[in-house]
Amino acid sequence: MTLSEAQIAQAVALTEAYRRVEGTAADKIAAIVAAYYLQKVDPMSLASVNRWLDIVVPALIRTSDDSARRAAAYFLGIRGIEAPGSPLYSPVIATGTVDQGVRESLLAMGPYNYANKMKANGGKRLSSKEQLIIANNLAAATLRHAQAGGRQTIFENSAKDRTALAYVRVTKAEPCFFCVMLQGRFEWRPFSEDSFEASNSRFTGAGDAKVHDNCHCSLKPIYSRDDKYAKDALEAAELWGLWGIGKGKEAINNFRQGYNHWRETGSKDWKPDA
Description:
By secondary structure, the chain is mainly alpha-helical. It has one domain. The protein has eight helices and two strands. The chain has a two-stranded antiparallel ribbon. The radius of gyration is 20 Å and the shape is globular. The chain starts with a helix and ends in a 9-residue tail after the last helix. About 5% of the residues have low confidence.
């Protein structure tokens, strides 16, 4: 299916608007989770920690479920622009992607982290600066969870909708090396469910779209080979071919160095032995 310039422009406008809305909603809940923790939680008090979790966990679950519903609407909107006249399709809405299990993640990033640092500090309570760092890490992790429902919804519907040719990762304007690496793991149908699986173990986000803390990437279904975001992904794959040399973490580290060198200098001439 060939897209007209008008279709491409409409799809880009809708995709960027969707990504902004998702980012704003995630930023909001992340700020709430971190601010409440920083201002009102005594990390050494179980009662205080539980009060915080009882408030923020349901809010985070709702945010992820709202993200799933927005993603389903976005999916249908993109499908209508890029594949008009296709058979009717009823999208899956991946509510429940984030559940009560998220409590453990928040505990690990907040109170458990505080207790471990306090132990390493000889039992002394942490400084305000150290506590702020923990709160910022909590916010970054919350961002990942808040958008999980939306990402999972796009993934599941791209797999289910036989009209779709692929799905692709949509990054921010200046993405980090890890997001570009995963953006380049792009496959035309039939694509495998583990397209994004071979990732650094530090970045094991919920669902099938692997993301790191503080990530604002989204996913997009692809209905045409001239889709702008598919072309972006193929360019990312070319970059991986240049610098992703070796196996496992060695390849990832080489790609990171090559990609960062390119961003800093504008040159793609980096080699592992440079």
